[in-house]
Amino acid sequence: MLVDKARRYYLLEDMNCAESIIYATNDEYGLGIDHTGLKTMAGFGGGMAIESTCCGALSGAIAAISVRFTKTKAHENPEVKELCKIFLERFAEKHGEINCAPLKNLYRDERFRCLPVVELAAAELEKIMEEGQKSDE
Q1: Mean pLDDT score of the chain, rounded to an integer?
Q2: C-alpha closest to that of 64 among 15, 122, 10
Q3: Handedness of CA 50, 60, 12, 36 (dihedral sign)
Q4: Tens digits of per-residue pLDDT, 88-122?
Q5: At 99, is the secondary structure helix, strand, or coil?
Q6: What is the torsion angle, in degrees rounded to the nearest 10, for the CA atoms of residue 65, residue 71, residue 76 and residue 78?
Q7: What is the pLDDT of residue 43?
Q8: Which one, of 29, 25, 27, 59, lies nearest residue 42 by Cα?
């Protein structure tokens, strides 16, 4: 289950929210992202370090959607944009926000940091991955 894998990376591997999502999704769905590719998400944690942009967990999810469903490039795969849009809209609808600082204010605690946000993002991402796969068939 994606949530369990994301939790493990976040807590046991001490990864940031973006890394946790991309590593977990790579494992769960066999995306084939190599170590160098996985490292690209390191800079996306903490809303790209300034907290005023999209949450790192959501950025990691967008990257995972992109890797899984882009066959060639964005302009030739409009369904990828739609899946990303649906993911972010659903997350915002359920949790009121997609940006890092407000999500931290709602969910972060000293013991588990932003684990609840990582779990919420992973759960929503899992639904999108399933829906995208069905529309791909």
Answers
A1: 96
A2: 122
A3: negative
A4: 999 999 999 999 999 999 999 999 999 999 999 99
A5: strand
A6: -30
A7: 97
A8: 59
